[in-house]
Design goal:
- InterPro entries: MeTrfase_RsmB-F_NOP2_cat, MeTrfase_RsmB-F_NOP2_dom, NusB-like_sf, NusB_RsmB_TIM44, RCMT, RsmB/NOL1/NOP2-like_CS, SAM-dependent_MTases_sf.
- Keywords: Methyltransferase, RNA-binding, S-adenosyl-L-methionine, Transferase.
- Belongs to the class I-like SAM-binding methyltransferase superfamily. RsmB/NOP family.
- It is a single chain.
- By secondary structure, the chain is an alpha/beta fold.
- It folds into four domains: about 130 residues, Orthogonal Bundle (N-utilizing Substance Protein B Homolog, Chain A); about 35 residues, no CATH class; about 50 residues, Alpha-Beta Plaits, CATH 3.30.70; about 200 residues, Rossmann fold (3-Layer(aba) Sandwich), CATH 3.40.50.
- The chain has a seven-stranded mixed β-sheet with strand order 7-6-5-8-9-11-10, with helices on both faces. Strands 2-3-1-4 form a four-stranded antiparallel β-sheet.
- Strand 6, helix 16 and strand 7 form a beta-alpha-beta unit.
- Helix 14 runs parallel beside helix 15.
- Bound molecules: S-adenosylmethionine.
Length: about 450
């Protein structure tokens, strides 16, 4: 008699589609997720469940794979089967899904997607996983904490070891390392920015958001949907991490002597900081050039400016290493450099597994060139803010030191490094440099 099949649970099916797109097509989870939710017509709680399943399973797959492998006699698995197991392990060890529901829905899923063959294996592995807690599994599969702290935390907090080593170096000690790695594994709060002159923080508060501590333009929307806030829909406000707001403000608010009318955002796409800078420039009678190398991202910058008055922002699609403007003509420049993004791991669940140490080496060369161009673009006495959403020293203070080391016309005014586990922001770095007036 043919076996009766239960219908596959839609949020779990959607989560598997996201894992497949990320693994097989190199997709970005945060970009593919909305498309998959639409395709499966998921909203509200179901959409939330699919999002948590996909993001958690992708983010934590380093740990979950170690647990899965410990339950296998032969470590080779079809990639689709491993994806189903990762989703099952996430439900068993990190969510409050009852064991029987996590196991039976995973078996249904593998039957529907791969066939009957691996269903017994999925059932057996997940039953084995369900017999122990997350803590017990970590104790079993991770290196000993006392003997090898970084190795232990790499497995327990599911980060590649080389990333753990670089983050520890950036922190300067191991004291806060576990707190940082754990913060990378938590979903970030949704922070809004009220673009000055276009919206007030009070308007965002009236929509249920709570004003941020550090940025005077920020408000955190706990659990709400930003697309339901009219100011966001109208482009008078936007979604922007508080750390990014503070970087834009470091550029706009640093004291300057003399003219203060011509601002440049050298790497502007997709335009979050440029929109805040454009709003401030409009209030202060300044103009902003927002430059971005990739034309499709330059188009995003232009649309981020929709609510600003005409004539304040010029968007350019150009390679910042070959500037299209006359040197020494800007008063303030922001170089928000392309970087490894290792300070924004909360937002991009797959990125920690895609990056390699070689990526950092390549980026450092480009970062130094872009900072040099920024300093050439600013007038004597003008300011440059160099920023990254990475705390890795090779991309932050060492870039600044290398560029300062070969110039005799520039001083470091100050710098800051933000952290998810301390300030609740992305790990943004910013250094303010001044080109000497007498050079
Ligand atoms: C960290 S992102 C900038 C984020 C942006 N400032 C914001 O707040 O929305 C870095 C940007 O630099 C761009 N980029 C990379 N190489 C560039 C170059 N040579 N010249 C100009 N932009 C470049 C990337 O395409 C990317 O959009």
């Amino acid at each position: 008699m043919a076996e009766r099949r239960r219908p596959v649970d839609r949020p779990r099916r959607a989560a598997l589609d996201v894992l497949t797109a990320v693994r097989a097509d190199g997709a970005y989870a945060n970009l593919v997720l909305p498309q998959v939710l639409r395709k499966h017509r998921l909203e509200g709680r179901d959409a939330g469940l699919a999002t948590e399943l996909a993001s958690g399973a992708i983010r934590m797959h380093g740990l979950y794979d170690a647990v899965i492998d410990a339950c296998l006699t032969k470590p080779r698995l079809q990639p689709e089967v491993r994806d189903v197991l990762r989703l099952g392990v996430h439900q068993l060890l990190s969510m409050r899904v009852p064991d029987h529901a996590a196991i039976s829905t995973s078996v249904d899923l593998v039957r529907a997607v791969v066939g009957q063959g691996p269903s017994g294996l999925v059932n057996a592995v997940l039953r084995k996983v369900s017999r122990r807690s997350l803590e017990d599994w970590v104790a079993d599969v991770a290196p000993d904490r006392a003997a090898d702290l970084h190795g232990h935390l790499a497995v327990a907090q599911s980060h590649p070891l080389w990333v753990v080593d670089l983050l520890a170096e950036a922190l300067g000690s191991d004291d806060e390392l576990e707190a940082l790695l754990a913060a990378d594994n938590a979903a970030p709060r949704v922070t809004l920015v009220a673009r000055p002159g276009l919206a007030e923080v009070a308007e965002l508060e009236a929509a249920g958001a709570v004003a941020t501590e550090r940025s005077p333009y920020g408000a955190v929307l706990a659990g709400g949907d930003p697309s339901a806030v009219p100011a966001v829909v109208e482009g008078r406000a936007g979604v922007q991490d508080e750390g990014s707001q503070l970087v834009a403000l470091a550029m706009a608010d640093a004291p300057i002597e003399g003219r203060d009318e011509r601002w440049l955002d050298l790497c502007a796409g997709p335009g979050g900081k440029a929109a805040l800078l454009g709003a401030l420039a409009a209030q202060r009678g300044a103009r902003l050039v927002a430059n971005e190398r990739q034309p499709h991202r330059a188009a995003l910058v232009a649309s981020a400016m929709a609510a600003l008055p005409d004539g304040v922002v010029d968007v350019l699609a150009g390679d910042g290493t070959r500037p299209a403007w006359v040197p020494g003509t800007f008063d303030r420049v922001l170089v928000d450099a392309p970087c490894s993004g290792l300070g924004a791991l909360r937002r991009r669940p797959e990125s920690r597994w895609r990056r390699t140490p070689a990526d950092v080496d390549v980026l450092v060369g480009l970062q130094q060139v872009l900072l040099d161009v920024a300093l050439e673009s600013v007038r004597p006495g003008g300011l440059v803010v160099y920023a990254t959403c990475s705390p890795v020293l090779a991309e932050t203070s060492r870039v600044v030191e290398a560029v300062l080391g070969r110039r005799d016309d520039t001083d470091l005014v100050g710098s800051f490094q933000l952290w998810p586990h301390r300030e609740g922001t992305d790990a943004m770095y910013a250094a303010t440099l001044r080109r000497r007036a007498t050079a």
